[in-house]
Each structure stands twice: as structure tokens, then as C-alpha cells.
Amino acid sequence: VQLQASGGGLVQAGGSLTLSCTASGYIFSFDAVGWYRQAPGTGRELVARISIRGSPNYADSVQGRFTISRDTAKNTVYLQMNSLKPEDTAVYYCNGFPSNPRYWGQGTLVTVSS
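^ thats the sequence. predicted structure below, dont judge the formating
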């Protein structure tokens, strides 16, 4: 199983990015999925998750700014990030929820400049 996050980049504060998570050997609709991030010098944290039924849940720090969604036909999970802040700078990963240590990919770097 490989979960691949993509779509990161450099954006100014207040800007937007959409991250995508694709998978081989893993069906997103069969499991809850989470987006996680790790900023330099910090631990990995869960920022958003979507249940099997499609119900989203967000960390307080991103509530109202980030939206997680899932396209079953494309077997892809998205993270729409709006009103980005410098403190959102991190490497973003996708994984199941709860996370499976075998499924961590390389992540995608999001850098928000002030």
C-alpha cells in the first residue's frame, strides 16, 4: 500500500492550496482517512479526517479554513486549504484514521510566506 500526497507548494499568507491524496492498494471509501502535518521541530498532528460515511472533523487550528473531501470514483481524498497562515507551514501527509505506521508516504511540503 502506498499513499501519496501531492499539491503542496509556496503560497502567500491568505492564499489557498488544494492537496490530493491518492493510493494504490487502498480503497479510501472502506476506511476513515486523515490529513496530518508536521512542522519543523514538532510532532505530527492530525488536521482533518473524514469518516467512512463522509463526515468531516477538523482540528481547532484549521476549522473554518480547511475542507476535507473524498472522491470515491477517483479514490482520492482532498484537502482544500484557504486563508493560509504562516503557521500552516509543514509537510502534509495522508493516512488512514487511526494512522497506520506502514502507510506514511513522503508527504507534500506547504510553505506559507508572511
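Strands lie at 2-6, 9-12, 17-24, 33-38, 45-50, 56-58, 66-71, 76-81, 90-96, 108-113.
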